[in-house]
Amino acid sequence: MHALFFEVRPKPGHLEHYFEHVALLRPVLAKHTGLTFLDRYASLKEADVILSHQLWESEEAIVAWRKDATHRRSQTAGRQVHFTDYRIRVGARVLHWTGGEATPLGASDTSHVVALYGTAPVTDPAFGGFESVNHKGQFIALATVDRAAAAQALLDQHLGTSGLEEAAIYSIRRDYGQHDRTQAPT
């Protein structure tokens, strides 16, 4: 399973344009295979910051969506007209917890995202919190750490937290934004 985390900050007055593009892309996305989960979340800390969180069966499926011509036009409009900034992180899920014991991760020096999913916001300042736009009362909290051991330790601190329903750790392969495209695919 592969995750895509797309955090976007629309320009003032452009949030509705973002959601208009989302609506136009929905039938195009439906023609692609491999998407298993998609939800959009509003930041609990930063007004007008939106997170699109997607789970895909493979990185190849993400690449196929990224290369879709209609999606490319929407990406260009976002970069050139609608967005002040954005950040995209793509990575493989290396741990998935739905209750019980979390399986320890192997050592890795790549950055990792710890994602906590549930019915209550996470108050730990290490996390950025978001509430679902589509399913009020559903939350995701994200923290980025620089190695697997730190991700495991952070997750272990939050297992058993009230409202926590699911958690995952993703090993990040690409992390880029509107202004730093070093890791962006070509």
TrEMBL record:
GO terms for molecular function: monooxygenase activity. Gene3D superfamilies: 3.30.70.100. Residues 1-75 form the ABM domain. It comes from the Bacteria. InterPro entries: ABM_dom (IPR007138), Dimeric_a/b-barrel (IPR011008), Jasmonate_Hydroxylase-like (IPR052936). Keywords: Monooxygenase, Oxidoreductase. This is Heme-degrading monooxygenase HmoA. PANTHER family: ABM DOMAIN-CONTAINING PROTEIN, BLL5343 PROTEIN.
